Amino acid sequence: MSSANKTLPLTGKVCDIVQLGNPLLRQTAQKVTDTAAPQVEQTIVDMLATLAVSNGVGIAAPQIGISLAIIIIASRPTPRYPNAPDMPPVVMINPGYEIIEHTRKKDWEGCLSIPGIRALVPRYQAIKVSFQSPQMTANTLELSDFPARVFQHEFDHLSGNVYLDRVENNVDIITESEFMARYLD
Questions:
Q1: Cβ distance 70 to 47 under 8 Å?
Q2: Which of 55, 163, 167, 177 is the most buried (most CB within 10 A)?
Q3: Contact 15, 50 (CB under 8 A)
Q4: Three-state SS for 168?
Q5: What pTM, to 2 d.p., does this model score?
């Protein structure tokens, strides 16, 4: 982004979601060294556009085929997560986190890159996130409960992990349709 244009455009390209089995999902994403680079801006607007139509609550750049350390968390009620709290999208470049509350809770997760499956995944309940914004400012944010879960899920994508890697027992994996019938009807 040029210094004259510090806001993101409102439209981007809706990208195909990279699916489990694609080697890109198992690679460590590259750190962003220049947040003003045109590729970074384009990646962000494409991620926002893709997330807007996906019924997801977060997305990582590797999920749209770009190996950069960028995630967006955007908790909101969707058909996939009808009880999610509403928060505006937060773009995080080169994120990291520290654990505030060491209590872990198992809860249901799904993934745009692994359609049709849900699993119980343990995650930390409260974290402190550090990241750069698209405007090149350093930020910290405390997240808890569902938004903290979304962040940890997306952060895993940056290190080549998927939520199924964190499942403690295979009986905690079910189909999306079974999840919907059991827990959302």
A1: yes
A2: 163
A3: yes
A4: coil
A5: 0.91
Task: Tell me the average pLDDT across 7-16.
Answer: 74
Structure tokens at 61: 């750049």
Long-range contacts of range 170-177, CB-CB < 8 Å, 24 or more positions apart? Answer: 172/106, 172/119, 172/120, 172/121, 173/117, 173/118, 173/119, 174/117, 174/118, 174/119, 175/116, 175/117, 175/118, 176/110, 176/115, 176/116, 176/117, 176/118, 177/116
d(Cα 5, Cα 108) in Å, to the nearest integer? 39
Q: Could you tell me the residue ranges of all domains in the chain?
A: 23-184
Q: How is domain 23-184 classified at the CATH fold level?
A: Peptide Deformylase (3.90.45)
**Catalytic-residue membership of 101:** no
Confidence bin at 4 (pLDDT 50/70/90): very low
> Which residues fall within 8 angstroms of residue 176, CB to CB, at 6 or more apart?
110, 115, 116, 117, 118
pLDDT given at position 10: 52
Question: pLDDT tens across 57-114, in order?
Answer: 999 999 999 999 999 999 999 888 999 999 999 999 999 999 998 999 999 999 999 9
Token code pair at residue 34: 């220049």
Among 41, 154, 168, 176, the one annotated catalytic? 154
